[in-house]
Amino acid sequence: MDTEITLVVDGVEHRLTVDTRTTVLDALRERLGITGPKKGCDHGQCGACTLLLDGRRVNSCLMLAVAFDGADLRTADGLGNGQLHPVQRAFIEHDAFQCGYCTPGQVVSAVGMVQEMHDGEPSAVTPESADLSDEVRERMSGNLCRCGAYANVVPAIVEVVR
Ligand code: FES
Q1: What digits encode the pLDDT tens for the residues 77-113?
Q2: In total, how many domains does the chain have?
Q3: Which ipTM was obtained for this model?
Q4: Which range marks the domain in which residue 98 is found?
Q5: Measured from the CB, is residue 106 less than 6 Å from ligand 1?
Q6: β-pair partners for 56
Q7: 3-state SS string over the chain?
Q8: Do residues 6 and 26 both lie within one domain?
Q9: In this structure, what CATH number is given to the domain that contains residue 124?
Q10: What pTM was estimated for this model as a whole?
């Protein structure tokens, strides 16, 4: 069944008709040509498709587009309002990528994670004795990098958290 919805992506309103079974990731990539969010696993395991939904991190491959009708979505392209976001600058300064496929999801997730930490949201499993790098590793564990660039990703995010 088709239905008409509005997706607000990086501050731009898009009106479109979608099959009710369409994920928001497919609606963005295939219907709107918004390719910042990547399709890695399509099963909620890699984080390449991460978006901010009203500032909270979500895996867009797991969510139906109809559930996002009218919601404020943010991709890596809209984080800094036309400028690089501090997290994006830190990724560049730390050379925190290799092939770059996971980077939009990593950056979006890191922005959401920094906000969660500032809001005082506790980590589910990080012991209190853990250092900041361990905390970042745990909180970013939903974002995988097949190249294994974690050695630079983690310090980039730690720098922003500090
Ligand atoms: Fe969504 Fe991997 S593509 S978590």
Answers
A1: 999 988 999 999 999 999 999 999 999 999 999 999 9
A2: 2
A3: 0.97
A4: 86-161
A5: no
A6: 53
A7: CEEEEEEEECCEEEEEEEECCCEHHHHHHHHCCCCCCCCCCCCCCCCCCEEEECCEEEECCCCEHHHHCCCEEECHHHCCCCCCCHHHHHHHHCCCCCCCCCHHHHHHHHHHHHHHHHCCCCCCCCCCCCCHHHHHHHHCCCCCCCCCCHHHHHHHHHHHHC
A8: yes
A9: 1.10.150.120
A10: 0.93
Atom of ligand 1 nearest to the CA of 38: 3
Ligand 1 centroid vs 23 CA: distance in angstroms? 11
Q: Tell me, yes or no, whether 61 and 92 share the same domain.
A: no
d(CA 76, ligand 1 centre) in Å? 15
Rg over alpha carbons for the chain, rounded to the nearest Å, is 16
Residue type, 79: L
Q: What is the pLDDT of residues 63-80, one digit of tens each?
A: 999 999 999 999 999 999
The residue count of the chain comes to 162
Closest CA to 7 of 72, 84, 58, 54: 72
Based on the domain organization, do 62 and 103 belong to the same domain? no
Last residue of a domain, one of 78, 109, 134: 78
